[in-house]
Amino acid sequence: MxxxxxxxxxxxxxxxxxxxAAIESVSKRLGNTPAIYRKCYVHPEVLxxxxxxxxxxxxxxxxxxxxKRQYAKLTSDEIVVLAFLRRRLGSLxxxx
Length: 96
Known about the structure:
The structure is a single chain. The protein is mainly alpha-helical. The protein has helices at about 10-30, 35-40, 45-50, 55-60, 65, 75-95. The longest helix has 20 residues, at about 75-95. This is DNA topoisomerase IB.
């Protein structure tokens, strides 16, 4: 969600700066160092999707709406993450 708040990037260097800034922001809020937060709490596919330009598109498409009724006890952020990981997993299975 922190990555979705950044403007669209024009280069991979801009994208990497956005990733670093988002990780620093969230890790500070959670009381972790950026290195620990990235290693322990950030799924690599989230970063891969952001770097390829797909993450923001997926969030903007409101993929969470599809899962809202099925996972009513989850927060909106949890639903977005779950939907994202399911979609990426499906893409990876198709590629294999």
